[in-house]
Design brief:
CATH architecture of the largest domain: Alpha-Beta Horseshoe
Bound molecules: iron/sulfur cluster
Largest sheet: 5 strands, mixed, barrel
Number of domains: 3
Number of helices: 12
Strand content: 15-25%
Shape: globular
Distance between the termini: 46 Å
CATH topology of the largest domain: pyruvate-formate lyase- activating enzyme
Structural class: alpha/beta
Length: 408
């Protein structure tokens, strides 16, 4: 029996591809599982192109499609002669999802329980992603993720700790808590409602051998007080927050149906940095959201300095079918591309400032493959030697190349 996986998209999909293997191969059949993403039209195009290539190269292979694409673009995949079967996003981590009784995509909005994972490590990854939350109850006007992932649901604290313990027992040094709407963690746990901050504390208390705990993207306006307190007091909680900001103008944020204002974002960054002075922010920002004027875009550019952002993920707006934003008056494609380039340039400048400030310092780095690593604030580092991936080492920073630090 062999199960190959091809994964598109986010950290959640990466760890789920690892976790679904046993179920996908339980009946002894050889399969190629394509775990798709639907966040942009391009992600769907890339997955379908890969499926056609696999079918050409391995005509005997049984190709199974799962992931957000299976839920959001069901017909596009079901119509492909190369695809033997679709497995729903809500059943891909369950044995029945791969058996004859599997229902396929379409039931995701009815899923209420989050499936805990129990993987020892993720092939090819030094940092272990631990899913603690799935789905989303928000309806940002540009986003299809809730329709691919279903309602927000949390893995119990006990199951999360068990997963972290398994990773540490297998030599893992850094764990990244991941989800779709991470800051919604715990609200749905009817027997013991809790929060992301409380979970962080519980993990660090229960697993003293865990060297580094990191958070994936959060919604700053939903960050709970316990999370801010943990940031201030827990050294093993990494000084790096990636914020889902999306834009810097209040009217555009309103049209996106985001829950925060420009002032909220600036205030959150100032508060968090006061509590943890070495904190570094990353952020997701969309360029060219429908109706965005030059003046409104300028407020996104200015937000980089006002929040003190360092690691930018810039997304040129790409319409998703059936979303409210896709029905709004669009910005010209040329202007979208041009604005994305300007935002990236401001981001590169901010990163250079940050890198300059690290030169001459001695930093703890988690080594990855190929002589690279990550500092605690997620800054990439080129190492002088090639320590074993997963090794924690203290290195002297002697220079940078505009994108990463260079160690002696
Ligand atoms: S919070 Fe908004 S952008 Fe994020 S997954 Fe939910 S709907 Fe999408």
């Amino acid at each position: 029996m062999s199960v190959e996986t091809l994964t598109f998209g986010c950290r959640l999909n990466i760890v789920e591809s690892e976790a679904l293997r046993a179920h996908a191969g339980a009946d002894g059949r050889d399969r190629i599982v394509v775990n798709t993403c639907a966040v942009t039209a391009e992600a769907g195009r890339q997955a379908r192109k890969a499926i056609r290539r696999i079918a050409r190269e391995q005509p005997e292979a049984e190709i199974v499609v799962t992931g957000c694409g299976a839920e959001v673009e069901t017909q596009a995949y079901a119509a492909m002669p190369e695809v033997a079967r679709l497995v729903g996003n809500g059943e891909k981590l369950r044995p029945e999802g791969w058996s004859a009784v599997g229902t396929g995509p379409g039931a995701i909005m009815a899923v209420r329980a989050a499936d805990p994972t129990r993987v020892a490590a993720i092939a090819g990854h030094t940092r272990a992603f631990v899913p603690v939350q799935n789905g989303c109850d928000h309806r940002c006007t540009f986003c299809v993720i809730p329709f691919g992932r279903g309602p927000s649901r949390s893995v119990s604290v006990v199951d999360v700790i068990a997963q972290v313990e398994t990773i540490v027992a297998h030599g893992g040094r850094e764990v990244v808590l991941t989800g779709v709407d991470l800051t919604a963690y715990g609200r749905d746990l009817s027997d013991a409602p809790t929060s992301l901050g409380t979970l962080v504390r519980a993990i660090l208390r229960a697993v003293p051998d865990l060297a580094r705990l990191r958070l994936s993207s959060i919604d700053s306006v939903e960050a709970d007080d316990d999370l801010l307190a943990a940031l201030a007091e827990e050294e093993r909680l990494m000084p790096h927050l990636h914020l889902s900001l999306q834009a810097g103008d209040d009217l555009i944020l309103k049209r996106m149906k985001r829950r925060h204002s420009r002032a909220d974002a600036i205030r959150f960054c100032a508060t968090a940095r006061r509590l943890r002075p070495d904190l570094v922010f990353g952020a997701d920002l969309i360029a060219g959201f429908p109706t965005e004027t030059e003046a409104q875009f300028t407020r996104s550019l200015e937000l980089v300095a006002e929040c003190g952002l360092t690691h930018l993920h810039v997304f040129p707006y790409s319409p998703r079918p059936e979303t409210p934003a896709a029905r709004m008056p669009p910005v010209a494609p040329q202007a979208i591309r041009e604005r994305a380039a300007r935002l990236r340039a401001v981001g590169a400048e901010a990163l250079r400032w940050h890198l300059d400030a690290q030169v001459g310092r001695r930093l703890p780095v988690l080594a990855e493959r190929g002589g690279t690593g990550r500092a605690e604030d997620f800054t990439p580092v080129r190492l002088a030697a090639e320590p074993e991936p997963g090794t924690l080492c203290a290195v002297a920073i002697v220079a940078h190349d505009g994108a990463r630090l260079i160690a002696a």
